[in-house]
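Q: Got a minute? One more chain.
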Amino acid sequence: MNKKIISVVMMLILTLTINVNTFAAPSTNQTSELEQAQSSKKALQIQVKNFNNELDKVLNKIDINKAKMNDIAQDINKTQTKLEIVEKSAIDQEDLFEKRARAMYINSVDSYLEVLLASTSFSDLISRVDTLERIIEYDKNLIAKIEEQRTSIIKHKDTLTNENNKLSALKTNNEIILTKLSKDIKEHKVLLSNVTKKETKLIADKNAKELAAAKILKELEAIKTATLSRQLASSKSSTSNSDAIPIDLSKSTNYFIMQSTAYSMGGFTSSGSRTTRNPNGYSTIAVDPSVIPMGSKVYIEGYGYAIASDTGSAIKNNLIDVFFNTEAEVLNWGRRDVRIRIIN
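A: Always. Here it is, folded:
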């Protein structure tokens, strides 16, 4: 190969090298866009961290509310039982009074005065007066007792109403907290997911350009070496088989592997509904709202369909708590890894 040909080849290589370097270098707009995406991601991560701290406080508050709700429910049952006993006692006292009055009427004793006039002697009169005084005192006490019991019934009913109002207020407060919590979690997840996707794409584009440029430069260097050593043909053959570094992309899936525990203490959930276990329908599970949004319907291998309607301060990250009706079922379930699919 003569010097003229070598000079032409070298000039061509130099020109291509300059163009490749220009191609490999990211544009100002691309760099700025990537920096902005990374800055936004860091800001969102800080927000998510702060949000998770607030989430812990909210979950603790919900735990307290749940305990109060279940305590009030028990108080309502006790109050209702006491109320039924008082009402029955009042009814029994009224029946006794009516029976005695009816007996006096049947025996033609229409009034206390008639009883006194029917006395046959002064001693009999004194005896009858004493008896009537006792009867009147008994009637007076009976009427007062019935009135006292009625007052007690009204007081118990007022207490029951107040307790019901407290229960309704707690349920409403829980619903408001959980609704806002679920909304905030979804918004943060969407924002973080979008900025992460953008950052990943920008980095992938940058890496792909750098990889392509590095490959071209490597091939040009091989051509340059071959030209200078007058082995252009063989060097081209040896460099034509070079491989590009593959990019490994992770694939998303609707299935998750999570740790599962179980509980059987029935009562109110964090969302205000009752805990339930329905193998043919949807059962109750407790979740971390930052992982599975509240209200989500899921399918759990070995358990069935369920609704994420409960939470707890101990339920964090990739941990769920499934509900059973009996302690025996809880012990049988134990602690295990389960596969979960979010339906909606």
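A: Confidence is low (pLDDT under 50) at residues 231-252.
Q: Perfect, thanks.
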